[in-house]
TrEMBL record:
Pfam family, one: Ribosomal_S4
Family: Belongs to the universal ribosomal protein uS4 family.
Self-association state and partner proteins as the record states: Part of the 30S ribosomal subunit. Contacts protein S5. The interaction surface between S4 and S5 is involved in control of translational fidelity.
Domain RNA-binding S4: 92-157
Domain Small ribosomal subunit protein uS4 N-terminal per the UniProt entry, residue ranges: 3-91
Subcellular location: Plastid, Chloroplast
Primary location group: plastid
Signal peptide per UniProt: none
SMART domains: Ribosomal_S4, S4
Protein species of origin: Halophila beccarii
InterPro entries: Ribosomal_uS4 (IPR022801), Ribosomal_uS4_bac-type (IPR005709), Ribosomal_uS4_CS (IPR018079), Ribosomal_uS4_N (IPR001912), S4_RNA-bd (IPR002942), S4_RNA-bd_sf (IPR036986)
The protein, known as: Small ribosomal subunit protein uS4c
Amino acid sequence: MSRYRGPRFKKIRRLGALPGLTRKPSKPKSESGWKNRLHPIKQKSDYCRRLKEKQKLRFHYGLTERQLLRYVRIAGKTKGATGLVLLQLLEMRLDNILFRLGMASTIPGARQLVNHKHILVNGHIVDIPSYRCKPRDIITMKEKQKQKSKTLVTNSIASFSDYELPKSYHLTFDSSEYKGFVKQIIDRECVGLGREINELLVIEYYSRQT
């Protein structure tokens, strides 16, 4: 299944806030229409709840179904709580790190910076958005394209003034030099979706496929 490129507000109204997809607020879905009065809202099944949590992860981080399944399988083979490891794998992706540093306004925007070879990791060009960052990694912009990159990053940083993600204790950003630093593996409390995601339901959804 390919990466989603359709209307973003449609997914937000269905799944809730997805800051990685877009930070623009959507109109709340009305609950007082005549259809709702004639057809009361049914209680969601366990499968529906698991599917919703899985979709939150997929659309927030901009993954295909195959990519997310691969991350779940890697998390299942890694020592530690599978749900937490899964979130850590997703949060330590380069495109997400750029987003959390404020260098891009959305994860798709961060992916574009990486694909266009604007980003250096430890002094080397990295053009793979799924690159897994590690503690002590230094993230900067390519010198030859620095002015263009700086304009994109400056606009992104300015747009973050009225918006807050969970605190990123695992990251630091030097706005004067446009340099990010990964201090450590992310903790559960700093995950981008925070309390909005139940990773255990995602693991349950994929339990038969792993």
